[in-house]
Amino acid sequence: MNFFGTARSQPNSGSQGRPNPAAISRWLVSDVAVRRATSQDLRTLSEILAASFHETQGWRTWFLPLIRLGIYEDLRHRLRSSQHPHACLVAIDGGDRPRLEPDLNVPLSARGDQLLGTVELSLKSTPTTAWRMNGLSYPYISNLAVRPQARRCGVARQLLMACEQTALEWGFRDIYLHVLDNNLPARALYTQLGYRLQRVELTWGATWFGQPRQLFLSKSLIRS
Q: Phi, psi (5° rounding) for residue 196?
């Protein structure tokens, strides 16, 4: 199954603040295992990503089926593409206890795993300049999402650590990601794991419409 390993979940891993009581009863005693995603996971991953990054209440819910379909097709294309290094990782409930009842929004994957979260790692390139015609490639983390019932239990931490191990296997010494400046739980987690601010990226939305700024973070994967 190409597991990256298992690690015992910790109550406060993944964000600051008090853990979700419902999450404690479900996930605190289980092992979290990380493996590569397969095509059988696509439906469940599209549910998790839609619930994490899009409105799930009110009139916008009418668009959720279309949003999930778009996510499904985009992810299916990335899983099939072999042009550039890419890894889509999933965290699963690796405990030996009986399976949980799947919630209404996030069913079991087609292969029977209880998927807790997902993340992607790919290569991006720096812009070309007059002195460097080809941009330098670097590993970039994106689409980190954890199902609500499994948050604040170490799932995101394990996914990030698996990304870091993958980047090392690809031969890189540093890893990068973006986070919005108003996402305090995520920023706290990244700081705990050793990510440091590289630059603040201002967009038109942030400048003129008060939208959150994007923070570009990096982490050295080589211990000094």
A: -130, 150
**How far, in Å, CA of 188 to CA of 178, rounded?**
13
Q: Quickly list DSSP for 6-24.
A: EEE--TTTTSSSPPPHHHH
Q: How many Å apart are CA 1 and CA 35, to the nearest integer?
A: 7
Summary mean pLDDT of the chain = 79
Is the C-alpha dihedral spanning 199, 205, 209, 212 positive or negative?
Answer: negative
Nearest to 114 by CA among 129, 93, 128: 93
Question: Over pLDDT 90: what percentage of the chain?
Answer: 51
Confidence check: pLDDT of 185 > 90: yes
Phi and psi torsions of 199, nearest 5°: -165, 160
Q: Which contiguous run of DSSP H or E holds residue 78?
A: helix 64-80
Where do the DSSP E strands lie in the chain? 3-8, 31-36, 86-93, 115-125, 137-146, 174-180, 196-201, 214-220
